[in-house]
């Protein structure tokens, strides 16, 4: 009688053992993330909150930039104000900057008459965060 276990069973048992060990290590280590690029260690929960805010900021910027582009494509001019995107139905509301916690801190980049193509009038062609904070990747949110 063959008492050897099948290879698949032995591999599955090894994988379960490795997974259990990894979970045990994760549960018993301090709630910190290793230092990266000389930055001090930061509790995982704080880092996760920052990652969530960064994701929200990227989403807000993407949606506003897409609305500005759509406005320009349809009207052959940039919106004169950010609230024009709301009043003309391109977005439902001006979003709150997740790092400044206000709708009014957005930095608006305006096109000057004649900038780029000859038929471009003044208006908002881009938007950036008004936050002066530094992102987890070392860049400024205001440069995103």
Please provide a written account of the structure.
With 144 residues, the protein is α+β, with helices and mostly antiparallel strands. The protein has one domain. Helix content is 41%, strand content 10%. It contains three helices and four strands. Strand 1 and strand 2 form a beta hairpin. The chain is elongated, with a radius of gyration of 25 Å. About 6% of the residues have low confidence.
- Averaging pLDDT over every residue, what do you get? 82
User: Helix proportion of residues, in percent?
Assistant: 40-55%
Class by helix and strand content?
A: alpha+beta
Q: What is the CA-CA span between the terminal residues?
A: 68 Å
Strand-residue proportion: 5-15%
Task: Tell me the number of helical segments per DSSP (H or I, 4 or more residues long).
Answer: 3
In total, the number of domains comes to: 1
| Strand line-up in the sheet with most strands | 1-2
Order of helices and strands: HEEHHEE
Rg over CA atoms: 25 Å
**Low-confidence stretches at least 5 residues in length (pLDDT < 50)?**
31-38
Q: Identify the overall geometry.
A: elongated
Task: Give the tally of β-strands.
Answer: 4
Largest sheet: 2 strands, antiparallel
């Amino acid at each position: 009688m063959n008492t050897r276990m099948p290879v698949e069973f032995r591999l599955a048992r090894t994988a379960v053992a490795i997974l259990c060990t990894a979970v045990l290590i994760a549960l018993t280590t301090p709630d910190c993330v290793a230092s990266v690029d000389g930055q001090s260690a930061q509790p995982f929960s704080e880092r996760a909150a920052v990652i969530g805010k960064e994701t929200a900021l990227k989403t807000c910027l993407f949606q506003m930039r897409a609305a500005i582009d759509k406005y320009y494509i349809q009207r052959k001019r940039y919106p004169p104000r950010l609230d024009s995107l709301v009043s003309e139905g391109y977005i439902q509301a001006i979003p709150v900057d997740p790092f400044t916690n206000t709708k009014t801190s957005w930095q608006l980049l305006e096109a000057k008459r004649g900038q780029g193509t000859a038929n471009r009038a003044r208006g908002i062609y881009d938007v950036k965060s008004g936050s002066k904070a530094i992102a987890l990747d070392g860049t400024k949110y205001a440069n995103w």
